[in-house]
Amino acid sequence: MSRVSKLFTAVAAAATLACAAVVPTQAAPAAIDANSNSISVFYYSLNDLFINQLSAALQDRALANGIKLRQYDANDDLMRQISQIQSALVINKDGAPILVNPVDTQNGVAALRAARQNKVPIVFFNRKPSDEALSSYEDAWYVGSNPANSGYYQAEIVMDYFKAHPEADRNKDGVISYVMLKGEPSHQDTSLRSNTFVRTLLEDGVKLKPIASVNANWSQNRAQNEISTLADRGQLEQIELIVSNNDAMALGAINALQAEGYNIPNTPAGDHSKYIPVVGIDALPQALDAVERGTMIGTVLNDYTAVADVMMRITEAYLNGEQITDEVLGYTTHEHIIDVPYVKVTNENISEVR
Ligand code: GAL
Q: Using a 6 Å cutoff on CB, does residue 240 contact ligand 1?
């Protein structure tokens, strides 16, 4: 038995004995009414700006259809999430699906096992358990996007930008000197986004020189600190591009740049004396503002509204005892995986995304 499974079994036993001390961090009903269509949703961390946005979309979508959400925030704590899921399963008498954004992949497997034991459907989102784990339970689903595609779109944004602005190659050496801000090392999005970005540019004949590549773990503050450190070392002048695995880190980078007089809103196009192109992923509202103000060259919509919608469609189908078909979901499913497409966002199409 793996460490996580042992942990899970121990927590399960404790939770059953203690009769489930549920500790939701957001508004939870005082008592659970089995007839009230309430659904439990588990987030790895609501401090994550993107997850927060997704949770708002999910709440809106649920509310619109008369479904109550009990939201649990694990605050990036594996143990806490396991205990939250176990406690919720104990009181989930009507077999309503649970929605899980696992703290890590292993945790996802433990959650899946518990859901299966309790005959409760489980819908994973944002962090994908392995295909093998997913296919081990017929009522397990994953709703997310294919991370490689977002790295590809970032590469397109960067190529278009450097074609339109050759002066962005400040030292005119024909090589883009870049900093990469990465998510958590173990996250599927980190490696697939980063690698696809680099590979796409190289395949297109673009020469790249990494100045720094750091894991800022999706965090705006950590990214801001990383770029401030490079600024303190006098390295900003060498940097011709900052590519970030998400918008939160891109926004942190922009804060650090602005503290040094770089990337001031509405810097005239073509003036790269104090301007470093920054590109992110997610299309957070703050990032869309940054694209509009020109402090960021683009982002990629990580379609949280569509993800929330598909999750609720699956949930509603289970609650109503209906078949889950591609027609019901509005997407083609493959092995219970629903791939919600990313959308490339620049100033040219931003109004369509708003
Ligand atoms: C990614 C998203 C990041 C972060 C991460 C958490 O899809 O782009 O901003 O939220 O998920 O799992």
A: no
